[in-house]
Amino acid sequence: MPILTLPLEPDGAVINIGFVVSGPRQDAMRKAGVPIPAPVVVRGLVDTGASGTCVDCTVIKKLQLVPSGTISIHTPSTGPNPKTCNQFDVGVGIVMDNNQIHLSGLVIPVIESDLSAQNIQALLGRDLLEQGILIYDGRRRLLTLAF
């Protein structure tokens, strides 16, 4: 099981995460003769308070994704009324040891979000984190992930 240990950044528990067009979408694009977009690697904040992984709309655009559905979400700023967001199926990879990408075969639905006001392009939710082990060592200012 590959293990990644990083210092906590001023922005918190931030790691590099790669998003790719899912396998089924790649197949459809090949059949249509459409080029498959390159993987997009972004800064993602580990967020154990998020039930689902969120991705900035710029990543969705770069990957030329089409929505697989919608989801109603509650955030601290939505109050009692949920917000409806597009969902997209993507392949996910965690950039670990020697810039190798792990979990690249994992496909999860991600929630389109506008994260432009933050210094990240993704929130890594529990749907992704449940695939591995997370240690947040605040005293030593370290984040450890194992997948």
Q: What's the short version?
A:
The protein is mainly beta and 147 residues long.
Describe this structure in words.
By secondary structure, the chain is mostly beta strands. The chain has one domain: Acid Proteases (Cathepsin D, subunit A, domain 1). The chain is built from 3 helices and 10 strands. A 6-stranded mixed beta barrel has the order 2-3-8-4-7-6. Strands 1-10-9 form a 3-stranded antiparallel beta sheet, with no helix packed on it. The model has no long low-confidence stretch (mean pLDDT 90).
SSE layout:
Layout lengths: L2 E5 L6 E8 L1 H9 L8 E7 L7 E3 H6 L6 E5 L9 E14 L3 E14 L8 E3 L1 H4 L3 E5 L4 E5 L1
Parallel strand pairs: 3-8, 4-7
Antiparallel strand pairs: 1-10, 2-3, 2-6, 4-8, 5-6, 6-7, 9-10
List keywords for this structure.
3-stranded antiparallel beta sheet, 3 helices, 47% strand, globular, mainly beta, Cathepsin D, subunit A, domain 1
Strand content: over 45%
- DSSP, total strands: 10
Looking at the overall shape, the CATH architecture is Beta Barrel
Provide the number of structural domains. Answer: 1
Main sheet specs: 6 strands, mixed, barrel
The succession of helices and strands, N to C, reads EEHEEHEEEEHEE
Count of alpha and pi helical runs: 3
As laid out across the biggest beta sheet, the strand order is 2-3-8-4-7-6
Principal-axis shape equals: globular
CATH topology: Cathepsin D, subunit A, domain 1
Helix-residue proportion: 10-25%
Q: Structural class of the helices, strands and pairings?
A: mainly beta
CATH class: Mainly Beta
CATH level-4 homologous superfamily: Acid Proteases
Low-confidence stretches: none
